[in-house]
């Protein structure tokens, strides 16, 4: 017949000698105690830590002990769930044998794994931010990528601006006392402006098909050109 009390006393003495600085007895009837385990120190100095509380049941180790995470540092909810699941799996695999050291060792390894995953996630987030910053810089340098739709939209705005500039120029000339142009002169002036605008647009379109030139010209620059 198994002497459960004797096995429990012997394990308790062994656990106390293995974890002298992190082992604390909480109760005698039933026997309850805590063991604090922490991950290896991370490069940034931040580690994760869990204080595990175990309580012997009468038929331990033929039945698993009770356990809970008594306290923790830097563990997310998902990490806590994974640690509890791990304890359940390890307990089922070690029924019939004293298992506290095995359970604590498994949790220790799990905490190291959590730290490594956090480090990898942080590095990936850093890389992603750097890529986003590079893409934003490229967009800023290259301008808007030209498509038929946005070029036609830009051209419509350009033509409206040109019409407004002509009306403004004509009004300023009239206010300055310049003689009003005849119909023929006005046609020739408008024709020259149209020809200039068309040539400029052709130059723009030609430049857009060259490698590395992918921007729609700024309408404000065109205003200064004709202003």
From TrEMBL:
Record's keyword annotation contains Coiled coil: yes
Listed SMART domains: RWD
Residues forming coiled coils: 107-175
Listed Gene3D superfamilies: Ubiquitin Conjugating Enzyme (3.10.110.10)
SUPFAM superfamilies: UBC-like
Entry keyword set: Acetylation, Coiled coil, Phosphoprotein
Similarity field: Belongs to the RWDD1/GIR2 family.
PANTHER family in alphabetical order: RWD DOMAIN-CONTAINING PROTEIN
Full protein name: RWD domain-containing protein 1
Lineage: Eukaryota, Metazoa, Chordata, Craniata, Vertebrata
């Amino acid at each position: 017949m198994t002497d459960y009390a004797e096995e429990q006393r012997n394990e308790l003495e062994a656990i106390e000698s293995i974890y002298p600085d992190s082992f604390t007895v909480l109760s005698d009837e039933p026997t309850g105690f805590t063991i604090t385990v922490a991950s290896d120190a991370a490069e940034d100095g931040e580690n994760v830590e869990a204080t595990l509380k175990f309580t012997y049941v009468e038929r331990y180790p033929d039945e698993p002990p009770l356990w809970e995470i008594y306290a923790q540092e830097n563990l997310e909810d998902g990490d806590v769930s994974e640690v509890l699941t791990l304890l359940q799996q390890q307990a089922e695999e070690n029924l019939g044998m004293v298992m506290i050291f095995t359970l604590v060792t498994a949790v220790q390894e799990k905490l190291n794994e959590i730290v490594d995953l956090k480090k990898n996630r942080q590095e990936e987030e850093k890389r992603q931010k750097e890529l986003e910053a590079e893409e934003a810089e490229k967009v800023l340098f290259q301008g808007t990528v030209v498509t038929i739709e946005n070029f036609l939209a830009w051209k419509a705005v350009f033509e409206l601006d040109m019409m407004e500039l002509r009306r403004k120029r004509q009004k300023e000339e009239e206010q300055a006392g310049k003689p009003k142009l005849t119909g023929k002169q006005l046609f020739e002036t408008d024709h020259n402006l149209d020809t200039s605008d068309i040539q400029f647009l052709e130059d723009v379109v030609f430049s857009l098909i060259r490698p590395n030139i992918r921007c729609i010209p700024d309408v404000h620059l065109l205003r200064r050109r004709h202003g």
